[in-house]
Each structure stands twice: as C-alpha cells, then as structure tokens.
Design brief:
Blueprint lengths: L1 H17 L5 H6 L7 H11 L5 H13 L13 H36 L4 H15 L2 H15 L15 H35 L2 H8 L4 H31 L1 H7 L4 H11 L2 H29 L1 H5 L1
Helix pairs in contact: 1-13, 5-6, 5-8, 5-10, 5-13, 6-8, 7-8, 7-11, 8-10, 9-10, 10-13, 11-12, 12-13
Length: 306
C-alpha cells in the first residue's frame, strides 16, 4: 500500500497547493504597481505556471522520479539542497523529543499502572492531564523567557552540527526538545498505563504470579512486552507527526528545519519547495509507520506466526 498511498498524496499535495489564492508572481510583483498583466503572464510562462495542471504534474513527477525535485522559484537554489540542509535539524529535534518522552513516560506509566489508585498514580495522571493541556509553543516561549531573564542565555540560532560540537549541539536542542517532549510524555504515559492495566488483568500474568515469580519479572518480562504494542503504535504515529508539526517550535527557536522552511515556502508560494517538503513529510510518516508494523512481529511472536 506504500506506493499507491504516496501517489495519492502527491496528487492531493499538487492540487491543494494550486487552490491557494495567488502565486509567486503575485508575491514578487504585487508591490510593483508598474508591472502590468502582460508582464505577469510572461513571468508565469517562464516559470512554467501557465501550462495545464496535468502537464505541470507530469513534469514534476517525472523530475521527481529521476531524483530532481526542481529548483526553488524564490531563490533559484535546488530544492534538494535546501531540504538536505534543513533535514538534520528536524530529525534531531524529533528523535531527541521522542527519546526524552519515552525514557520518562514509559517507566512512569508502568509505575502508575502497578500502583493503581495510589498517590503515585494520582500524581502521574494529574501531570499527564497538565501535559496534554499545555500547548508546546506556549511552553517553548516560557522557556525562552525564563532562560533569558533568569540566566541571560538563549540557544544559538545558527545550527551547530553534532559532529562539530556535540556539547554545543545538545545545548542548542535541549529547550526545543523538552518543549516538544512534555506533551509526548503525557500521551505515552497515559497509553502505557492503560495498556499495562489491561495486560496485568490477563490470565497468564496471574499464572506467573501464582508460580511465585518476582514482581519485577512479571511486570517487565511478561506484562510490559505485550503492553508495548499499542504504545509503539502511538510513538510511531507521534514521531511521524512531529516531522511536520514541529514547525512552530522551529519558528520560536529560530531553527531553519524542514517545518520552518515549509512555512516560509508556503508564504512565498514556492511550489517546487512546498511540494517536495510536504511529500518528504508524507514519505517519512509512511515509512515510520511501516517500521512500527515490522516491530510488531518482534514484540509479539504470534503476529509473525500469523
């Protein structure tokens, strides 16, 4: 289903972009009152925007299949160069956010389920609700204000590659990753607690306890592995969504990732850059969910046997 899904996505992306009012010619010449309609028409023709839609789509897909997503209508630079420059920023922020959220949320969800209806459970659930209720851009703004006022420090805007300066890179991404991870923690913690409660009530878990197995072995080896299947599903979905939804965090922290690049391209009606960026996000989302499906067989051997 991966190929037809991406083919359908390419059609939707192409057509919906053309439904936006105005194009890059209107943006470039909009402030110039001396640019007449004939000049605008010639500019559209030079950019290939006056061709029928099916010809524009066929040309875009043909170039894309040859590995050439085209050039930016705004800057003239290759789209692939712009995206490859922005890709490490978005990927690192998404992966760091997911790692922070998983390291904190999964153990917290397990403890909350094992100690159901205790003070630990209630506190975890309250913090989970708070995490779901607070928008990540608001948290990011407060973090910037706090670190700048209290410590006189803000993360650098220029991207610091991990290979050049690992410490500087982690300092730069610490605040954005935490701002995104807080809501993820709440989602993963609540899902882990729910699935653990369901698994702990199964017969095989009660049998393991009746055999005298240690509580930690019962929880970690027997219950947690089966409970992780829906949790992994949610994590895969959220990681795919983060590739696009992190745009506002990138804007807040001045990081020129894929999301920020996409937002600027939409404002400029830069069709080749928008099409390539959105299709990339769709490919990333589909591949991440495909990987999650493959992980099911590792977590539950019954799926592999089926």
């Amino acid at each position: 289903m991966l190929v037809p899904t991406l083919f359908g996505m390419s059609i939707i992306i192409f057509l919906m972009l053309r439904l936006l009012p105005g194009d890059i010619v209107d943006i470039i010449a909009g402030a110039d009152a001396q640019t007449d309609s004939a000049s605008r028409a010639k500019l559209r023709e030079a950019m290939g925007l006056s061709d029928p839609l099916y010809e524009q789509y066929a040309r875009w897909i043909g170039d894309l299949l040859r590995g050439d997503p085209g050039n930016s209508l705004r800057s003239g630079r290759p789209v692939s160069e712009l995206l490859w420059k922005a890709l490490p920023i978005t990927v690192e922020m998404a992966v760091l956010s997911m790692l922070i959220a998983a390291i904190v949320a999964i153990p917290l969800g397990v403890i909350s389920a094992v100690r159901r209806d205790t003070s630990t459970d209630y506190v975890s659930r309250v913090f989970g609700l708070i995490g779901l209720s607070l928008p990540n851009f608001w948290i990011a703004t407060l973090m910037l204000l706090f670190t700048s006022k209290a410590f006189g420090w803000i993360p650098p805007i220029r991207y610091i590659p991990f290979t050049e300066d690992p410490i500087g890179n982690l300092k730069q991404f610490a605040l954005p990753a935490i701002a995104v991870a807080i809501q993820l923690m709440a989602i993963i913690m609540r899902m882990t607690r729910t699935t653990m409660l369901e698994v702990l009530s199964q017969d095989y878990v009660r049998t393991a306890r009746a055999k005298g197995l240690n509580q930690r072995i019962v929880v970690c080896r027997h219950a947690l592995r089966n409970a992780l299947i829906p949790v992994i599903t949610v994590m895969g979905f959220q990681l795919g969504a983060l590739m696009g939804s992190s745009a506002i965090i990138e804007v807040v922290f001045g990081l020129n990732g894929v999301g920020n690049t996409l937002v600027q391209a939409i404002f400029n009606r830069d069709y080749p850059l928008v099409q390539a960026a959105v299709l990339y996000l769709a490919v990333a989302f589909v591949l991440i969910n495909l990987l999650v499906d493959v992980l099911y067989a590792y977590l539950d051997p019954r799926i592999k046997q089926g």
